[in-house]
Amino acid sequence: MHTHQPLIKLDGICFSYPGGSPVLEDLSFTLFENDRIGIVAPNGSGKTTFLHIIMGLLPPAAGSLELFGRVMQNEKDFRDMRRQVGLLFQDADDQLFSPTVLEDVAFGPLNMGKTKEEAIALSRKTLAYLGLAEFEEKITFKLSGGEKRLVALATVLAMEPRVLLLDEPTAGLDQDTKKRLIKILSELDLAYILISHEFDFLTATTDHMYTMESDKILVDEELHVHVHEHAHKVGAHPHRHV
Fold first, then answer.
1. Would you say residue 236 lies in a domain?
2. Nearest partner of 206 among 227, 189, 220, 192, judged by Cα
3. Which of 56, 47, 3 is nearest to 29 (CA)?
């Protein structure tokens, strides 16, 4: 039972894109300190929209949003709070725009008022933590998809957020990079919301899994991912269903 103040609280959120049917309708959600929530749902169910509303990138038509106990009412409120909420975009190319990796990672801390020396020191520390120390001078756009994804995560972590929002972080990653990402997330002392289609990844990185249906998040029931084996009449080999 949580008795402390939530980090994120959405209440009665409604949202539709222009000319479209509702994407989110009367959606409520709460994230507390140390919560690691996984969300798995079909494409088009509003998962990315949900994260963008938390960041203030999309304005809801109705409902209220609180971040760290403060009601978000305008862009200035969100501007102050975005320093504490790190969003990893679904496409790493949306996050990376500087010539070199070190410049990309230092951009956020510099924007937050750190000196150049402080920003570089923090960026180097973050890259080393992610096993990317040798990437400092690499040209960002020449990196592989998996490398870009980890560098994008570095740009978010260098901001020293209190909460992470991760939108399909395993998209395009090979197995080795996925394993690295699982290790990184399991060692982070942060609350986060993680959207993914991959049950194995969610099982390894989150404490609870929810789904989205009928424009709402089903937060009342935990999704129990199960694996079972059985034999079919056609085909002699037992196989697994997730």
1. no
2. 192
3. 47
Q: What gap in Å lies between CA 1 and CA 4, rounded to an integer?
A: 9
Structural domain containing residue 32? 1-82+198-221
How many separate domains does the chain show? 1
Within a domain: 69: yes
Instruction: Please indicate, yes or no, if residue 234 is contained in any of the structural domains.
Output: no
The answer to whether residue 68 sits within a structural domain is yes
Give pLDDT tens digits for 176-234.
Answer: 889 999 999 999 999 999 999 898 999 999 999 998 876 677 654 444 444 333 343 33
- Quote the distance between the C-alpha of residue 19 and its chain's center: 28
Residue 216: beta bridge partners? 213
For 81-120, what is each residue's pLDDT tens digit?
Answer: 988 999 999 899 999 999 999 999 999 999 989 999 999 9
pTM for the full model?
Answer: 0.85
CATH number at residue 55: 3.40.50.300
CA 62 to chain centre: 24
Sign of the CA dihedral with 162 first, then 88, 113, and 58 last: negative
- Listed in order, strand segments (DSSP E) in the chain are 8-16, 22-31, 36-39, 62-67, 70-71, 85-88, 163-167, 191-195, 208-213, 216-218, 228-230, 239-241
